[in-house]
Amino acid sequence: MGTCQPMTDQETTRRTFRNELWRSLPVGVLDTLVTTFGMLIAVRVFHMESLSKSVFIASTSGGLMMSLFVVPLLLRSQGTIANTAAKVQLAGGGFMALSAAFPSSAWLFVAGLSIGLFCMAMQIPLLTQLYRANYPEHSRGRLFSITGTARAAAAMAFGLFGGWLLTRDLQNYRWILLLFALSAITSGLLTYRLPATVWQPPSAASGSLWTSLRWIKLDRDFRTLLMSWMMMGIGNLIAAALFVEYLANPRHGINLPEKDIAWIVGVVPVIFRILFSYPWGLLYDRVHFFVIRASLNVFFAAAVFIFYYFQGHWAWTIGMALFGIANAGGNVTWSLWVTKLAPQHAVAEYMSVHTFFTGFRGVIAPFIAFYLIDHVSFATIGITAAVSILAASGFITIRARNSDPATSDRLNPKTRYERL
């Protein structure tokens, strides 16, 4: 498929890394749309009800679910990985531009940004396949973490700028919407410049849009880790969906100023994500995956418990700092873990299954979260989410102790490097 062979030499690695380093800047800006400014504008500008806010928060997850069908469609389109991913991103930028062009329309705000985020999420498995082909195994985590650090720095800078802009005048949200659209378009254009990478489909793949799901049955370790991610993800996503709501909505009794919310939710976690992305990347390349995943879950559980159980700026800041530390490693492991399990030709398929289930829990979590705030306290939400996250660590710890040699071979970097 395609007109060129997969490139794995040093020049291809350098080109991919350099391009991804530049692309991390607009993607970092878009990160603040999901974590901070989308919800802040929804609450403070449009005074949206829970259903609309849930739709917005769930839009990225809807794109992740749809990613299950991206790989079969790529087979049918005969396109390269980078070009297909770029087209999807540009479509997302176009929908975001609708929100920027009609900033006074509440329904276009929700529709344009939601569909835009949907598109940006849908192409993630394609990029994971490209990383598997173009980054060497022994340094994949390190290279990815460097671009992740640049992405986090861009998010922090824009979080500070956007918070300042909204504090000066809330109507400046119009400029923020425009910058989000431009960032999505820029990311798409940069993706076009990634080295053309051929994707050779597995021989067992069929034309069915559901073909990737066969790996759940065929790979026990993949199935086990998917269950663990589901347990952890439900608790984590319910908690994360309410960060801004908790601090911004007057009905909950806190009602912080825009600049304080942008600092606590949009900047503090990003600072710690910057500081810890590279160390987590090094650990990913050197430590058994089960150990990394269980450790990250402890940080996530502590973060949501402290944020919701205790009151005051210090508690919220400490909670978000721990969340940033966890996110630094979570970003690396979530994006790359399938490259440890999957054969090279099946990485996109494995990742599409992973993103499908991530999207599934991401779609239902916001609706559960906004339902819960009408029936239980935020402290109860924090405790429940933390318990769910810790349960996931216990689940994979038991599996690690009973892992067979094949599992250890795949998930232990030292064994993999000796084999290589």
What would you say this structure looks like, in words?
The chain has 420 residues and is an all-alpha fold. It has one domain (10-200, 215-419): MFS general substrate transporter like domains (Growth Hormone, Chain: A). The protein is built from 19 helices and no strands. It has helices spanning 10-44, 50-66, 70-77, 81-101, 106-122, 124-134, 140-168, 173-192, 214-218, 220-241, 243-248, 258-286, 289-309, 313-336, 338-341, 347-372, 378-401, 405-411, 413-419. Helix 4 runs antiparallel to helix 6, helix 7 (140-168) runs antiparallel to helix 14 (313-336) and helix 13 runs antiparallel to helix 17. It is globular and about 55 Å long. The two termini are 27 Å apart. Mean pLDDT is 84; it is low at 1-7.
Q: Whole-Å distance between the termini?
A: 27 Å
Number of distinct helices: 19
| Rounded radius of gyration (Å) | 20 Å
How many strand units? 0
Order of SSEs = HHHHHHHHHHHHHHHHHHH
Helix content: over 70%
Instruction: Summarize the biggest pleated sheet.
Output: none
CATH topology (level 3) name: Growth Hormone, Chain: A
Low-confidence segments, ≥5 residues, pLDDT <50? 1-7
Report the structural category.
mainly alpha
- For the record, the count of structural domains works out to 1
Strand content: under 5%
Mean pLDDT value: 84
Q: Which CATH class is shown?
A: Mainly Alpha
Q: State the CATH superfamily name.
A: MFS general substrate transporter like domains
Overall shape: it is: globular
Please give the CATH architecture: Up-down Bundle
